[in-house]
Each structure stands twice: as structure tokens, then as C-alpha cells.
Amino acid sequence: MELEKPFFSNFGAICVFAFGGTLISTFGVGILIYIFGQLKWTYSMPFLICLAFGALISATDPVTVLAIFHELGADANLYAYIFGESVLNDAVAIVMYKTVLSFVTSPISDQGIFDAISFFIIIFLGSFSIGVLAGIFSALLFKYGGFQQKGLSILESCLVVLFPYLAYNVADALELSGIVSILFAGITMKYYTAPNLSSQAQHVTTGFFGMLSKLSETFIFIYMGVATFLEQQSWNNIGFMFFTIVSILVARLWNVYPCSALVNHFREETKHIAKNQQHALWFSGLRGAMAFALALQSVTDLPDNHGRVLLTTTLLTIFFTVLLIGGSTSYVLKSLKIECHSPEDEGEGSEEVLERKMEDVLDIEKVQCKEMKGLHILSNKQRAKLKEKLKKIKSNTSFSSLDKKYLRPFLQAAPSGEGVNLQRSSPSTAHSYHEERNQDSTKLTEDQDEDEFSESRGLLMSSRSQS
């Protein structure tokens, strides 16, 4: 499943789920656990300890769900939502846990709250900047280093592995979050550095990281199983797990549906997150490696043996969500009627796909009809000019437009054949080549915009005549 395009095209929605959703989940779980404790229904903890537990247990890790999604060929956008949220909210959960932990050892005050918010922003933005800068530096190195011309594919692969590790060590040395830094270094390198590698280095690097990923997942689950019996556990508070799962499900409810409504409010009707996808998002909130790692750290971070209770509860919660929720994913997808297709079915024009496309066309016409009713005072020429201006503003200010015009030409090398020709030619020839290429791409974009505009105008006029 190709993930790059759906991930970046839905990056705004993913950030809403990862940042806003994790914040809601942290406070939701923390408040519910504190209320259950105050009612003497389960193990009672101070509010800040409950909030720290809410932060660490909010780190989702839907490895099982994503594996089944990939196998069944589920909707690429839904896959991107779940994957992107799990990747980014790990970083948010780590910083949130550290922020709440700073209040545990010091009294709460107005200055303390301000310091905590600034601490969160500095940690996250600092780690983010180090990761992105490491990715940009690697892209420029592979663009101008001449590794492909010298046949140094093994050296390329080694450097690709070392750059994220460099970002991690720099962030850790500056007392920032190394995990957040290595995460964004990987995202940046996948988008900008990978195209600058030779084909052999790409194959080696992809295989190496795939193997490393499988080994890491296997090791984590083996370690969790071993830790269940070797680490000192608190088996006297098993009922606390039940209320934790209830709190997680309720907080996930408060997280997914309001965030989906917010995303849909700023999107076109045809790009809304459907209800069945929202149900799938709510169902896919499994817990895994990051929650376990933070819970293991909480044993030494939290006083009065609270960390032992949280570690036991986190382990049991992970086993419950992975085995029960992860194991029933395929049945839930079928019951929610999530569109799935196997690789061999791609390219076949099924009736369901055609019906969905027809429904999308009808939805577009309905939206356009509403727009026509709102703009009935304007003449056709005025309406066309207004739409064209809005379209140009949107296209010029979007990240994809900035990426195509400035970032990719700066960070990525030309395709291999073009790059060889440019190396052999003079600087003036290379400069004129890039100018001609930019002019051709600009002209092509303008022609496409005019075609799309004329097509949408025709649809508007036909819908007006029908109404």
C-alpha cells in the first residue's frame, strides 16, 4: 500500500487527531480514573498521577490493526489516519508525560503552569527542528555528494542509517526528546532524501529498515511477555484494569468524533471522514510499545509504588486491546462496510466503486447547486473570476504547491538520466535546463487549472439549468 501521498494529503487531519486527540485523551482518562478512585470503586491515586497515567496510556500503537488493514487492502486514507495518529501521538504522549511529571515533584502555581506549557512547546519544537534539519542535511548531502556517480551504494545505506541516530543523540544531548527527533528525521528523509539515493541503496535501506521494524516489534512483545513474570507486579489491583479500559474507550469516544467533526467542518463535503471510518478510528486505538516503555519508566518516576500499579495495568491493557480488539479487526471492517480490495482486484471496475464514484459526482453537483444559489446575484463572468481567484489563492498557499515549487527542487536531485546530462553540461546549460523545466511545469499546471475550472463551470451551469 502506497502511504506517502495519503499521509501528506491528510497531514492536517492527522495532526488534529495526534495533537488535539491526545490532549483530550490524556485529560479524559486522567479525570475518569481520578473520579473512579474518589468514588472508592477502584485504586485511588492523586490527580497528577492520574493525569500522568492518562498521558502514557494515550500513546496508541495499532500494529495488529494496520497489519490487517494492509493485508485486506483497506481504504488508503483510513490507513493514513490510523498510522499517522499512532506515529505522531507517541511523540505528543512522551512530551505530555514529561510535562505532567514536572508537576508531581513541585507545587502547582500560575508560574508553574506557564512553565509547563513553555516546556512542552520547547521540547516538541526543539526536537522537531533537530529531526527536520537532520533530514534536510542528509538530502543535500546525497544530492551534491556524488555517491551515485562513484558507485558508493553501501556507503549511502550506512549514512542513511546513521543520520536518524545522529538526530537522536543531538536531541538527547540537549535534553530534548530523542524519539520525537528521530521520528521527524525519518519522515523528512523518506520524503526528500530517499529519491536522492541510488536504486541499489534504496533496496538495501528499505530491506534493512523492514527487517529492523519486524525485529523491534517481535522483541517488544517478547519483552512485555517476559516482564509480566520477571518484573515485580501489583496483582492486588486487577479491578483497576477494568476501569482503565472503560476510561480509554470513553476518552477515545471524546477524542475521535469531535476531532472528525472539526476536520469535516474545514473540508469539502466530498472529502469528509465518513461515519464508518470514524467508527473504525475509534475501534483502532490499541496500546503497545510506547505505553509499555513509559509505564516501565514510571516505576522509578512516581512515588508510593504507584508506578508498579500502572505497569501491571498497562501490560494487561495492552494484552486485552491487542488480542481482543486486534483479533476482531477483520470482522469489524466487514460489519462497518469499509471498502477493501486485494492487490489482484486492483484495476477491476467493480460495481461498488462505480456506484461510489457516481455518488461523489452527485454530491459535487449538490454542493455546486448550493454555491450557485448563494451566488445568484453575481453574473457569470464575475462568478468565474471570483472562483478563479479563490482557486489560485488556495493552490499558491498550499503546502503541496510550496513543496513542488521550492522545497523539492532545492532538496531533490533530477532523475538519474537528467542528472548525468547536467553533470556533463556547463553550468549555464544546467541553469537554462532548470528554467525550461520550471516553465514547462508552470504551464502544465496552468493548463490543468484552466481545464478543471472550465469543467467545474460547466457542471455549475448544467446544475443551475436543472434547478
Describe the protein in words:
This protein has about 475 residues and is mainly alpha-helical. The protein is about 80% helix and about 0% strand. It contains 20 helices and no strands. It has helices spanning about 5-10, 10-40, 45-55, 65-70, 75-105, 110-145, 145-150, 155-175, 180-195, 200-230, 240-265, 275-285, 290-300, 305-325, 330-335, 350-375, 380-395, 400-410, 415-425, 425-465. Helix 2 (about 10-40) crosses helix 5 (about 75-105), helix 3 runs antiparallel to helix 5 and helix 8 (about 155-175) crosses helix 10. It starts with a helix and ends with a helix.
Features:
mainly alpha, globular, 20 helices
Count of DSSP-assigned helices: 20
* Strands, count: 0
Low-confidence stretches: 342-354, 417-437, 440-446, 455-460, 463-467
* Shape, per Cα inertia axes: globular
- Percentage of residues in strands: under 5%
The end-to-end span amounts to 42 Å
Gyration radius, to the nearest Å?
Answer: 26 Å
| Main beta sheet | none
Helix amount: over 70%
Mean pLDDT: 76
Structural class by secondary-structure content: mainly alpha
The arrangement of helices and strands along the chain is HHHHHHHHHHHHHHHHHHHH
In terms of quaternary structure, what is this? single chain
